[in-house]
């Protein structure tokens, strides 16, 4: 498995794969069929090739498509006809178990025939890719207003990455978002197996945003980060450093209560008893950043939305943004650093970016593992700018690897800093320095 195929094993990792190229043209100007030769599909013109044909290439085996092409020209909550081309559908990735991955395919708003094709995956515990589409880089976003029982409203996002690329958003692994399995065994996946369901096609590079790379790196950087930005005092920082030493009964260390994963039998029974019951999320304050995720629950569970997206009836009783350990998943990759190393050594371009206000996967840990690759520095640490203002810092290494921070970006950097992230993406995708 490679990092270009992992969902980030529990972290906020967004992944992209891209292939730049142009369509093979017939004399009449129409693109040739992608299915005739899977090797050339990602060189095909996205404006003439359906997402079903593009997604076909992502899989290891020839796939049986479970749904016909579903073209969407309007969405519940969005006023008027969509100003972009949207297609949705399912791809059968495991015929024996009936595992179906749901996708959204959005054409580039610039030049879909020449722009690259990107695949976006969302990290977390079976988190839906719709988070990336509606909260981060897609062409629609929710209008932040009180929920009144009707379908939440959407508006156009002027900082969508579809300004520069065709994007396939895939609900992966099976069970995430609208993806489902016709047999319970289809939900039993992990880092490796879910990756095999998506490979294999030629790609030129990948991006990882606020990536979960391994718990020892990601979590160990949280305390230094909190101290560095002034969230915790010097005294607390020193105490935490003492408690992190391998003496679990050290007298200075306070008792830590069990986390949500350390479930008691009673809690596990409660989960089983309530399984199948719809559980709308608690309503946060409108001022909270996660208020839009609250709105997404009601939007995605609307029958009007399901009809518009072509969701198979009976396939998903309740849509949730992320699951809470209620679906099986094997974290069989402890650290993805070696895969990053392997890919970059093979010449694939890579951009690793981090919001500098992310306390979940702090940039300090990401910066440390990137530095541990021991690649030579090509362009040393410097500020990068948007409209004359500092937008973050970047450093370029040999083997086409770039690390960048996004100033003011949180765990999902494009959600917090859409203009800066779009500028970063456009420059990187065009082989320009940040």
UniProtKB/TrEMBL annotation:
Looking up PROSITE patterns in the UniProt record yields: CARBOXYPEPT_SER_HIS (PS00560)
Q: By its UniProt entry, which InterPro entries does this protein fall under?
A: AB_hydrolase_fold (IPR029058), Peptidase_S10 (IPR001563), Ser_caboxypep_his_AS (IPR033124)
Pfam families, per the entry: Peptidase_S10 (PF00450)
Q: Do the record's keywords include Transmembrane?
A: no
Protein origin, superkingdom: Eukaryota
According to its UniProt entry, the protein's GO biological process terms are:
proteolysis; secondary metabolic process
Keyword hit for S-adenosyl-L-methionine: no
Q: Which SUPFAM superfamilies would you find in this protein's record?
A: alpha/beta-Hydrolases (SSF53474)
Q: Which classification does the entry list for the species?
A: Eukaryota, Viridiplantae, Streptophyta, Embryophyta, Tracheophyta
Gene Ontology terms for molecular function: acyltransferase activity, transferring groups other than amino-acyl groups; serine-type carboxypeptidase activity
User: Can you say what this protein is called?
Assistant: Serine carboxypeptidase-like 11
Q: Which organism is it from?
A: Panicum miliaceum (Proso millet)
Identify its protein family.
Belongs to the peptidase S10 family.
Keyword annotations:
Glycoprotein, Signal
